[in-house]
Request: fold
Amino acid sequence: MNNAKPTRIYPMRKPDDHCPVVQRYSSSLDSSVSYVRFVVFGQQGQVDGFQSLVRKFFASQNAPDHRDAAQYTDPQGAKNIFTVAYWLDPISYNAWREGFDAWLATQDPKEADNGYWFETFSVPTPYRETIAFKEYLRGLSACPYSTIEPIGESAYWGAARDRFAASAYDSLGPVDDQSLTVNTDRDTRGKLLRVEGFPNNLCVIRSGVSWASCGEEQLDSYQNNLAPKLDEGMQYLRDNPAETGCASLRQVSYLNTDGTEAPEAFSLGFFLSFSHLEQWAEHHPSHLAIYTRALAERKKFQENLELKTYHEIYVLSDDAEFLYFNCHPNTGLLPYFENSQV
Ligand code: HEM
Reply:
């Protein structure tokens, strides 16, 4: 974690003398980096043609510093394929965005075969935190200008909060007592819609897992002990937006560069605030079961642990934008906030 240490108002949650059994790492950004720009661009309907669209836009001048690809079938049965892209230079992103907007302006949602969704935000670096294994880098940790540093803030409740530099002076809580209501009866097809009226400090998590290096024993443990609990937890979040403050939860397969599915997956979730996410992670039986089991396995296997996980969490400000082009009404943040036609 970089940047000068701010004056602390809120105490750290780290217990005195805490010493994690397995060394974990976090991405430290070069001091020249002030903001992280995160873009998710997805296609809904057919998956064909998306990779060439991505090559056209994301491999050109002002390309992102890093991008990953993933796909999933959503609970409404629609296929979605998407790219997650990261820029650390706002000038480069703005230049790239001009080209993307020019392309979007030529598209007619009434004539389109597919839907597209575009979700983006930029956060000042103290409003991001990451945790990783040093040999398995994804997302922000895989960007240039990011180095991977050992951390002591892991394996206790509150470690994620402590890893946010901003948690020293920001409670990362909800702005008010806003809760989520769901409206999926809107006529969203054939339109380009912008989501409005979302709170300023929405929280986004990308949490991933790879079983590529697992031998029989640890693969069996992942498939039988962890994965079912993870599925249960993700289903619970999708089914209970009002109780959890979780507004969108995509459970997706990671794609290799040739478009085949890799032995890894991630979840991309939007929450009303970081406190909402923390509350679920710390108190809901589905994550508690995964967490306890994963920490027990770390203790057992130590440096021979084969299952690799990472996550990155962002707390947003008003620099966030959510656009949906000819998508069904359950897509992304559409059901939870106001929609206005562009
Ligand atoms: C296979 C899947 C998962 C496993 C094995 C797992 C396991 C863990 C473990 C071991 C930690 C503690 C990390 C550390 O500090 O060293 C952790 C923290 C956390 N996990 Fe998960 N997790 C998984 C999926 C998820 C998902 C999908 C989400 C959210 C959508 C999530 C949310 C969190 C949060 C917010 C924390 C931070 C808790 C804190 O430090 O207070 N996890 N998880």
The pocket of protoporphyrin IX containing FE is lined by residues 24, 131, 154-155, 157-160, 205, 207, 209, 226, 230, 267, 269, 277-278, 281-282, 287, 290-291, 294-295, 309 (CB under 6 Å). The mean pLDDT is 94. The first helix runs from residue 50 to 58.
